[in-house]
Specification:
The structure holds 2 protein chains of 2 kinds.
Chain A (H helix, E strand, L loop, with lengths): L8 H9 L5 E4 L4 H5 L2 E4 L5 H14 L5 H7 L23 E2 L4 E2 L18 H6 L29 H8 L5 H8 L3 H13 L9 E4 L8 H14 L10 E4 L7 H4 L6 E2 L3 E2 L9 H9 L10 H13 L23 H9 L5 E5 L3 H4 L3 H8 L4 E6 L4 H8 L1 H5 L10 E6 L8 E4 L4 E5 L12 H16 L8 H4 L7 E2 L4 E2 L1 H9 L1 E2 L18 E2 L34 E2 L27 E4 L4 E4 L77 E2 L21 E6 L15 H4 L6 E4 L1 H7 L6 E5 L4 E8 L6 E3 L2 E3 L1 E5 L20 E2 L11 E7 L6 H13 L15 H8 L1
Parallel strand pairs in A: 1-2, 5-6, 9-10, 10-11, 22-28, 23-25
Antiparallel strand pairs in A: 3-4, 7-8, 12-13, 13-18, 14-15, 16-17, 19-20, 21-29, 22-30, 24-25, 24-30, 26-27
Helix pairs in contact in A: 3-7, 3-8, 3-9, 13-15
Chain B lengths: L13 H4 L9 E6 L8 H10 L25 E8 L40 E8 L7 H5 L5 E3 L5 E3 L9 H5 L6 E2 L6 E2 L5 H5 L5 H5 L5 E5 H17 L6 E3 L12 E5 L19 H27 L1
Parallel strand pairs in B: 1-10
Antiparallel strand pairs in B: 1-8, 2-3, 4-5, 6-7, 9-10
Classes of the chains: A alpha/beta, B alpha+beta.
Chain lengths: 864, 309
């Protein structure tokens, strides 16, 4: 966190000043470790084994916050008798379909709801990264469930959890992760001791944690611990997802993703959602509890914002204009499609995939096979010059004179040269003023898209083609100002906030959203940011002039709520769990919820409220159901649907690992998204042969001194000089083993690429003893590329493309490689070196090793 | 008014001594290295605000330090020290003569070489943002022949670049090796403690940029109190190695305007353990020189007088 989020780290330092104990888990000792009370070196990709060990420690010692767990989680809910666990399936849950490599989730459901809740065909959910839609809410589940409040029923979630993690012992943590047992126990003890009624503990991760083939399940494991310990919805608790700078949260809320619409409404699928009603029902899921019951209002208001007067109840608010998904349109599928000549044009905005995305060579080869490419950035980045300066030019794979892609480079305005909002990790929107005019032809993204849309509409004006109606009917009337006709960012914020169509009055809450076409809302979760016509995101009252929640600094979605699910900060009767951790509570005299924050609950619904039988939507949420966006109002220890690779996290080895999975016959995540393509070779892992060809584990991350793919830091002298060269960090032991000299050169080889780097020998990397072997890990920064003041080979070139099944994020934080002293070969020799490694490793380009590595699947599948 | 007897050595408030009437309180830096995260925001903010040129694109291999030292082109420098945890910090008694002691000095070998993985679970990475000390007794200022170096009303020491003639006397005079000549223009450059910002009531750029309040700016008296309290807290929390450096008005430079909380000996961070203002002995030397001249004159006189007799 100190490395990648130094500004946010001030609050960790502040917590330390107040006596908090800080543990840091990382494959190498970083600037965060330097300030932590305890550092746990971990083998990259084994976090579920570690956190699963903590779950077992909690359950075995009965250290869970029982009252919280019973009332607020699904611990007592009884699961279908058809469910079987990975403990019985050698790494597989029930319902695996080897044909598609996905699960049929019926057997995972709560008892009595088999087949009625799960979507069944998760192969399509995987293609559309459907897990992403759960960012703001839980997956679908029936509201009414059978429970055993004694937690003794063998099929209640609590008992299933206990059995599932029973083998995640401190000994196994040491064996799998390389973390000494004493260190593990120190962590487990501190975490549990600092949780409960009087105390809360927080789990913090940065986005590197998600970049694994089991990335979503990492976070799920953290969520299970935090629910068991009663750390959710309470001050000082929670899971702090440190998202990318500076508005990655904003770019999922108002998405730059292929499968989402604003406010986590899913992009419709051509086959599943032919009509508006079918689409809306797939979101609100009639019969389910919770706030998604109002999905129709949010959806209609969004379409109304898009198409204004043209959108009427009679034409389903122009639902037909919305693009439809037809399959996997994720960024990696697109790159392979580019290589295969299926994509002709591409826009790159503030993104540098030639350096920043996994498998840089595939990215560059793909972009070199387009008709046109538009790059908008502050500097001429690698993704704009790969056709003349990229490494493939040296190897002869790209010939500048013959490269067919026409690249349009358009200079962009930086964040200080335009106005708008950032949405940071706490869902806090903060308004930025423009500090200086952008230089030369540099323009804001807002300017670019507004005028692009305006020109397209001008060119299409008068068209009678039905396909042009979506563009021509758009509301595209933002006021502009200045010599360059810059659109007003505040007018966009007003539209995002939403307004009453008849009067133009800005809405103050998404509760005002209507499904009858009388409201237009650009992003329903942001409603309130422009309440009363005031830019609430621009509020800057100092924290010294208000209480510690600082509700008047910026504006947080939803409804300026700073902690989600904060009803859980009070006990089932509505009283604070403790004076010390008082946050939101029920005021019996006034008969309303009150507190320091905006209560995440219907204001006047008493704790004693019990829904009438058959109630759904918000009416179905009981007075003691704090998780109001979940279909059953409960925090999910066990996820009966929504997570495609299992209702519980399970340790699988990374796709590339030198180690056989010590827990199960199944080696890696069997549901991961694999792309068998000639460019996408994968290093062999046990039980395949030849894994010793790539004996070392490598991981990459950020340096404080550089920013992502380096486009904003390697180009700027005061930053570039602070980390002026690409390097690889190795332990003294590995340096001896491979003959590497401090400040000398080394090159690293995978089945995709070979890159070179200067060597830093450092104690911050430690060999780990794993399963009676010594595992060496090396670390590289991923910032370097071939443009800018300081250059170097790109670490991301080493990775292949293997994705998490839930959100289609790439596994780009762990892989295997070989490390050799000296510089890498040049020209064709470089390709020959990689080809030689492929041959020695038995890799056939275009073929994938089977995902299933245990015999038990066929039997289990046949029996079910 | 008689000059302060401590004008060249000993405790002193430098601004009034330099002739300022109604000088504002002396301002300075307290750099608490126990919360430094080595982000180098101070280095960048300093360069940006003061227009300091690039100091080179070299990978130095000194941990994450690619700045190397305080120079004419680096007025803040974050030192990174990778070291095994000293035995006494771990709580184990240090037996007399039990093998070589770790002195914290950078070795010629890469760190950790020769030790096994089993022995190396604990490790320390120290970071410290170094800066001009703005000494109470600033030798650079004392030796400057042009008056380019001057004492500000805030008690800080600043070079006026338009008067500096590049003689370089200040460079050899500085006991910390801070002030430095810029290669391409020959003049001496160093931290101004953002004199231009101070005058406008603003915080120096580095302190403003520091995310963890490792660099604190304020009236020196207040900072000294705050630092003493911080050391006491750290001692209470089991960090006995925390200590202050440059805070003592009775030290060899009369105390620094920029002082530090360190977690090891000053040498470990590349700081001199006992700096002394190089002009301390100036009165004594003038006295000796004067005596010698008198003696010479007397001897000459005696020779003439004797000769005539």
């Amino acid at each position: 966190m100190a490395e990648a989020h130094p500004v946010g780290f001030q609050w960790v330092v502040e917590a330390k000043r107040r006596g908090a104990k800080v543990f840091h888990v990382d494959p190498r000792f970083t600037r965060t470790s330097a300030l932590a009370d305890s550092f746990l070196p971990i083998r990259a990709g084994t976090d579920i084994a570690l956190l699963g060990g903590v779950v077992r420690y909690i359950l075995d010692n009965e250290l869970d916050f029982r009252e919280y767990v019973l009332s607020y989680t699904n611990a007592a809910t009884i699961v279908s008798a058809e469910f079987s666990d990975t403990e019985d399936g050698d790494g597989f849950f029930s319902g695996f379909d080897p044909e598609t490599g996905t699960y049929v989730q019926d057997s995972w459901q709560y008892e009595g709801h088999e087949g009625s809740s799960g979507s069944g065909h998760t192969a399509q959910e995987r293609d559309s990264a459907a897990g992403l839609t759960h960012e703001s809410h839980g997956a679908q589940v029936a509201g009414q469930t059978r429970r055993d409040e004694t937690l003794q029923h063998p099929r209640c979630v609590y008992q299933i959890l206990k059995r599932h993690f029973s083998r995640y012992t401190p000994e196994m943590v040491e064996r799998v992760c390389g973390i000494p047992q004493e260190k593990f126990l120190e962590l487990a003890q501190a975490w549990t001791e600092n949780s409960g009624r009087e105390r809360t503990g927080m789990l913090i991760y940065s986005v590197g944690w998600t970049q694994h083939s089991v990335g979503v399940q990492y976070i799920r494991t953290g969520a299970i611990i935090q629910l068991l310990l009663g750390n959710m919805g309470r001050p000082g608790g929670g899971i702090m997802a440190l998202r990318g700078h500076a508005s990655i949260q904003g770019s999922t809320d108002i998405p730059t993703l292929f499968n989402l619409l604003p406010g986590y409404l899913p992009m419709p699928h051509h086959a599943d959602h032919p009509s508006f009603d079918e689409w809306v029902d797939s979101i609100r899921h009639p019969g389910q509890k919770g706030f998604w019951g109002n999905a129709r209002s949010f959806a209609a208001s969004l379409l109304k914002a898009y198409w204004g007067a043209a959108a009427t109840p009679e034409n389903d608010y122009c639902y037909g204009y919305l693009p439809r998904l037809t399959g996997d349109h994720g960024t990696y599928q697109q790159v392979l499609n580019m290589i295969d000549g299926k994509i002709k044009g591409y826009f790159l905005l503030g993104q540098n995939p030639a350096v920043g995305s996994a498998h840089g060579r595939a990215q560059r080869l793909g972009m070199a096979n387009l008709d046109w490419l538009v790059v908008r950035d502050l500097f001429e980045i690698e993704s704009a010059t790969f056709w003349k300066n990229g490494p493939e030019v040296a190897t002869g794979e790209i010939v500048p004179e013959e490269c067919r892609t026409e690249v349009f480079f358009l200079p962009a305005a930086s964040h200080v040269e335009k106005e708008g909002t950032f949405t940071q990790t706490q869902r806090l929107l903060q308004w930025r003023e423009k500090a200086v005019e952008p230089p030369g032809d540099a323009r804001s993204e807002l300017w670019f898209f507004y005028h692009l849309g305006r020109k397209l509409r001008e060119k299409l004006a008068g068209s009678t083609l039905p396909r042009d109606r979506a563009l021509l009917d758009l509301t595209w009337d933002y006021p502009t100002h200045g010599p360059h006709a810059e659109p007003s960012a505040e007018s966009v914020l007003r539209e995002i906030n939403g307004y009453d169509v008849a009067t133009g009055r800005p809405l103050s809450s998404f509760a005002e959203a209507r499904a009858d076409g009388s409201t237009a809302i650009g992003c329903w979760i942001y409603t309130g940011v422009y309440a009363d016509g005031v830019n609430q995101a621009a509020r800057r009252r100092s924290r010294h002039e208000q209480d510690w929640v600082a509700a008047e600094w910026g504006w947080a979605w939803p409804a300026n709520r700073r902690i989600l699910y904060n009803r859980a900060s009070a006990d089932p009767d509505g009283n604070p769990w403790s004076e010390r951790k008082r946050y939101v509570w029920w005021d019996a005299e006034k008969a309303e919820w009150t507190g320091y924050d905006v209560p995440d609950f219907e204001k006047t619904k008493p704790p004693s409220y019990r829904p009438p039988p058959g109630a759904s939507g918000t009416e179905g949420i009981a007075g003691d159901d704090p998780f109001v966006m979940q279909g059953d109002g409960k925090g999910w220890l066990y996820a009966p649907s929504g997570v495609l690779d299992g209702p519980l996290p399970t340790h699988y080895e990374p796709v590339e690992s030198p180690v056989r999975n010590p827990f199960y016959g199944q080696q890696a995540n069997p549901t991961r998204k694999m792309y068998a393509h000639p460019v996408n070779s994968v290093n062999p892992s046990p039980p395949e042969e030849h894994s010793q060809v790539f004996p070392y584990v490598f991981t990459v991350s950020r340096l404080t001194e550089h920013h992502t793919a380096g486009g904003m830091s390697r180009t700027v002298s005061p930053l570039a000089e602070l980390q002026p060269e690409m390097f690889v960090e190795v332990s003294p032991e590995l340096a001896v083993e491979r003959g590497l000299d401090h400040l000398g050169w080394a090159h690293l080889v995978t089945a995709r690429a070979a890159i070179e780097a200067r060597v830093l020998v450092t104690d911050r990397l430690t060999p780990l003893r794993v399963d009676d072997r010594v595992i060496h890990q090396v670390w590289l920064p991923y910032h370097f590329g071939f443009e800018g003041l300081v250059t170097g080979d790109s670490a991301n070139d080493l990775f292949g493309i293997s994705l998490d099944p839930n959100v289609l994020i790439q596994e780009s934080k762990v892989g295997t490689c070989d490390v050799r002293p000296g510089r890498r070969p040049r020209g064709r020799d470089l390709l020959d070196l990689v080809a030689d490694y492929q041959r020695r490793a038995g890799i056939v380009p275009g073929q994938h090793a089977p995902a299933v590595t245990t015999d038990s699947v066929g039997e289990e599948h046949g029996a079910s | 008014m008689l000059p302060d007897p401590n004008s060249l050595y000993g405790p002193l408030d430098p601004a009034p001594d330099a002739g300022y009437e109604d000088a504002p309180p002396r301002m300075g830096f307290f750099t608490d290295t126990s919360v430094c995260i080595g982000c180098k925001a101070c280095e960048v903010a300093c360069k940006e605000w003061n227009g300091v040129p690039q100091s080179g694109l070299d990978l130095l291999g000194m941990s994450y330090d690619n700045t190397g030292a305080l120079t004419a082109n680096s007025w803040r420098h974050v030192a990174f020290v990778e070291q095994p945890r000293p035995a006494d910090v771990l709580g184990a008694p240090v037996a007399d003569g039990a093998g070589p002691q770790f002195l914290g000095m950078p070795g010629s070998q890469p760190p950790g070489r020769g030790s096994g993985a089993e022995d190396r679970t604990d490790f320390r990475w120290l970071m410290m943002s170094d800066v001009c000390k703005h000494c109470t007794h600033a030798a650079c200022l004392d030796v400057c022949p042009t008056g380019s170096l001057f004492r500000t009303e805030f008690g800080t020491v600043v070079v006026q670049e338009d008067i500096c003639n590049g003689c370089g006397y200040c460079i050899s005079a500085c006991p910390y090796g801070v002030i430095d000549q810029r290669k391409d223009d020959g003049r001496a450059w160093k931290c101004t403690l953002c004199y231009d910002r101070l005058g406008a009531g603003q915080t120096p750029a580095c302190a403003q940029a520091c995310p963890t309040e490792s660099i604190q700016y304020g009236p020196l008296e207040e900072l000294r109190e705050r630092a003493a309290a911080r050391v006491a807290t750290l001692h209470e929390r089991g960090v006995p190695e925390a200590r202050l450096y440059g805070h003592d008005p009775n030290d060899g430079v009369g105390g620094d305007g920029a002082f530090f909380l360190l977690l090891d000996e000053p040498e470990v961070y590349g700081l001199p353990p006992d700096p002394v203002v190089t002009t301390r002995d100036l009165p004594k030397m003038w006295k000796r020189a004067g005596l010698a001249a008198l003696a010479m004159a007397a001897a000459t006189v005696a020779a003439f007088v004797g000769g005539s007799s």
